[in-house]
């Protein structure tokens, strides 16, 4: 039954993306940029409905009061495709720094350009990266929120953390608060797998880290805060979903935490 629901959900998920992108294209490109963002956010909400209705997976968000006004860096854990889009409805006007190849995709790339996402050539150096930072500062100064994943890529739940220094550079150069976010959607939407598991999980938004710290000290603090909160949430999520099959990384981390607490 889980396999059938997973296939059905995946089919409808991508069909929903294609159909909405085609049907809503005229309105999207005629509306002012920020109002057009509402179309993408409604697509996200429809996916949450599909995930709950077909797979039986629900979630809740804690700590919305920790989100500041205006521009800030939103720094979530990254475990699956779910967290690449799922929180957009709760952010005012977010943007990403993303690989430029995504903007070359017909229609989808046009959507990205409309929202002034910041493309980057990952092999570039020097003047190109300076231009990327200049564009990022311009978007941030207009009150937008930069979504950046501190570990750079998807990591399975419970895996040894691998934080990149890039977020410390952004923190130093942009001089805005950083909002850490922990969650474990990868337990229900595993990366590189078609299977989707039913259950319930939490997204926990932590207090913002204000600008002004030394970049090295900031990164050390960010890692400590996020990993402590992530471990705590992993224990809670596993306990709340006793029938959920856990990946080896999560089982290993839970065993380590249990041994440490003993």
From TrEMBL:
Top-level taxon of the source organism: Bacteria
Gene Ontology MF terms in the entry: acyltransferase activity
PANTHER family (alphabetical): 1-ACYL-SN-GLYCEROL-3-PHOSPHATE ACYLTRANSFERASE
Transmembrane segment boundaries: 12-31
Name this protein carries in UniProt: 1-acyl-sn-glycerol-3-phosphate acyltransferase
This protein's pathway: Lipid metabolism
Keyword Transport included in the entry's annotation: no
Keyword Membrane on entry: yes
Keywords: Acyltransferase, Membrane, Transferase, Transmembrane, Transmembrane helix
InterPro entries xrefs: Plipid/glycerol_acylTrfase
Domain (Phospholipid/glycerol acyltransferase): residue spans on this chain: 72-186
Native organism: Shinella yambaruensis
């Amino acid at each position: 039954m889980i396999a059938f629901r997973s296939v059905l959900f995946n089919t409808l998920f991508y069909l929903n993306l294609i159909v909405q992108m085609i049907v809503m294209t005229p309105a999207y490109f005629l509306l002012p940029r920020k109002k057009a963002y509402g179309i993408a956010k409604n697509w996200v909400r429809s996916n949450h409905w599909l995930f709950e209705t077909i797979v039986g997976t629900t979630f809740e968000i804690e700590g919305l009061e920790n989100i500041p006004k205006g521009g800030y860096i939103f720094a979530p854990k990254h475990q699956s495709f779910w967290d690449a889009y799922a929180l957009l409805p709760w952010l005012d006007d977010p943007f990403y720094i993303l690989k430029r190849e995504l903007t070359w995709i017909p229609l989808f790339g046009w959507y990205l350009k409309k929202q002034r996402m910041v493309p980057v050539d990952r092999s570039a150096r020097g003047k190109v990266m300076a231009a990327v930072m200049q564009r990022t500062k311009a978007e941030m100064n207009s009150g937008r929120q930069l979504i950046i994943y501190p570990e750079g890529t998807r990591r399975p739940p419970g895996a040894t953390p691998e934080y990149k220094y890039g977020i410390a550079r952004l923190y130093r150069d942009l001089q805005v608060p950083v909002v850490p976010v922990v969650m474990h959607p990868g337990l229900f939407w595993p990366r590189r797998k078609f299977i989707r598991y039913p259950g319930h999980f939490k997204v926990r938004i932590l207090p913002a880290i204000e600008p002004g710290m030394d970049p090295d000290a900031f990164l050390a603090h960010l890692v400590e805060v996020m990993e402590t909160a992530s471990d705590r949430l992993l224990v809670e999520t596993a306990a709340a979903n006793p029938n959920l099959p856990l990946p080896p990384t999560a089982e290993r981390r839970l065993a380590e935490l249990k041994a440490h607490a003993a």
